[in-house]
Structure prediction request, 435 residues.
Amino acid sequence: MIPAIRGTHDILPGEIERWQQAEQVVRDICGRYGYREIRTPVIEREELFAKGTGETTDIVQKEMYAFQDKGGERVTLRPEATPSMVRAFVEHALEQHLPTVKIFSLGPMFRYERPQKGRYRQFHQLDVEVFGVSDAALDAEVIEMAAALVEALGIEDAEVVVNSVGCAECRPAFGRALVTALGDREADLCGDCRRRAAVNPLRIFDCKVPSCQPIVDALPHATDYLCDACRSHFDATTGLLEALGVAFRVSHRLVRGLDYYTRTTFEILGGRLGAQNALLGGGRYDGLVRRLGGPDRAGIGFAAGMERLVLAMPDGSGPRAPDAFIVALGDAARQPAHLLARDLRRAALTALIDYGDRSMKAQLRRANRTSARHVLILGDDELAQGHVTVKDMTSGGETRVGRDDVVRNLAGDLLPASPEQPARMRRPIGRDDGD
Ligand code: AMP
Prediction:
């Protein structure tokens, strides 16, 4: 056996239903807020992320699956979606085709990280981006939508955290204030942080090393160094969030591990997730489109970890029970049984059937294992009379139904009441009868 690569995982039947449900909720919520879906390649030029995500980030420095392809080009599996979304926005001049460029994407990302619960080397993200709008009303709407998504997935005790990291005008002063505040204590920081202090002091807030934490906690707050424009943007964002009824906390440590953020940054944390508790994170990135060779357009977005959303969702998203399991008794019944299965499937019902010539007992055992709602039995007797014996596995009731009526009945009509089974069978037994 050749096992899967460390940090990757299969999503198997039994679990996939939760993924499908999460993806359905994602598409529904994105649609309600006016987002259109796009899909970009998982492989891109390495420089897209060096320029986009940022040379000094951990992602670019340590975590990319980058290599030279057979044509000699430096390429990488994408570690995140935003630079690809920006590239697609520019490359296809999307603003000429969409009234407001609101786009979302679902797909796998790749980072060479240390795998643990909730952290993988191949993981999946929902990525949501808006281009060309600098109004703070959008910052609030994007955060409110992220909170609505988490709520629609049934995830409770989630916490919305926001901050502002300022802009190119005010951030340099904040960086200098960080270095000044560090003073002598810089020598007590870990090696990574000492390097960060020299090249990009803001990145010190990303540090997870325990001995750095008291030092990082005592550092100045970005929100105390905002220029007037960034200050009023932050106030407008938080003011509208309050008006929209979104509960949030302001955290000065929330600078996010990517270089492109300007002004608003935010995360939603899931209470029950343990160490890797960030369900999603994002923010505004007003200079990024131009940095990647596009027009000077504002941008804002977030990425949600699908593994973590699925992990945090409540139970109860199991597979839907099949509508029917068809039991064929004897050679003559086999072909009619397959025709019946075909007809049920054409009526959008789930119909399973056994293969090979197995005993009734063996077939019923398999039917039980599938948790089918109905077992349809076709034997010589049924064939002679043009009937099917329908066993309702919930009530235990059994009735004979004409071959031509069985599809319609299972598709939602009432089964005809037979004298022996009036009450139990007098109920809809279609796909959505909720039992
Ligand atoms: P980021 O792109 O780093 O801002 O991450 C956005 C979201 O993606 C996080 O809040 C996580 O939910 C998820 N995420 C990031 N890295 C991983 C990973 N290695 N494994 C699983 N989920 C991840």
User: Anything to note?
Assistant: The domain at 324-425 is CATH 3.40.50.800 (Rossmann fold). The CA atoms of residues 40 and 84 lie 7 Å apart.
